[in-house]
Design brief:
This protein has seven helices and two strands; from the N terminus they run H-E-E-H-H-H-H-H-H. The chain is mainly alpha-helical and 145 residues long. It has a two-stranded antiparallel ribbon with strand order 1-2. A hairpin with a 2-residue loop joins strand 1 and strand 2. It is elongated and about 60 Å long. The N and C termini lie far apart (64 Å).
């Protein structure tokens, strides 16, 4: 794989779509967008996972518009002037890109980093810590005074 192919794999190109005459660039969320997008998407995420974009748009219109603003950088007015089916299409694109990025990129990197840290820990102290022991809920026996 060449360096440019490596970079494309790490930083996929944005997908450009035009809906209702408005050009919208879509790509994986940036770190600065992730928290706000997650908070905005929380009310309708269940509908999206179930594939019911219509319910997401109808029942959580404000949250959908906010999430699309965050993900695309476009003002709310762009989406407010679209028909419901157009908003559903943009929402589907945003969710697909980001769910795919999450599954194909973030989870594997998380797993690789966890394995590296466990290997370092095991080499250093003999065994990897259990999740419970690193949670701060460890109690020490009482000291004898």
């Amino acid at each position: 794989m060449s360096n440019s192919e490596d970079l494309e794999a790490l930083f996929p190109e944005q997908r450009h779509i035009t809906i209702a005459g408005v050009a919208v660039a879509l790509g994986p969320l940036k770190v600065r967008q992730f928290g706000a997008f997650s908070k905005a998407a929380e009310p309708f995420a269940g509908f999206v996972i179930a594939g019911d974009y219509l319910a997401a748009v109808v029942q959580h219109y404000d949250a959908v518009i906010t999430a699309l603003e965050i993900a695309t950088g476009q003002p709310a007015a762009v989406f407010e002037d679209m028909t419901s089916d157009q908003v559903m299409q943009v929402l589907a694109e945003v969710m697909e890109i980001n769910l795919r990025f999450f599954a194909e990129r973030l989870l594997p990197v998380r797993d690789q980093l966890r394995e590296r840290m466990q290997a370092i820990t095991k080499a250093s102290i003999g065994q990897p810590p259990s999740p419970a022991s690193s949670a701060g809920g460890t109690t020490l026996p009482p000291s004898e005074s």
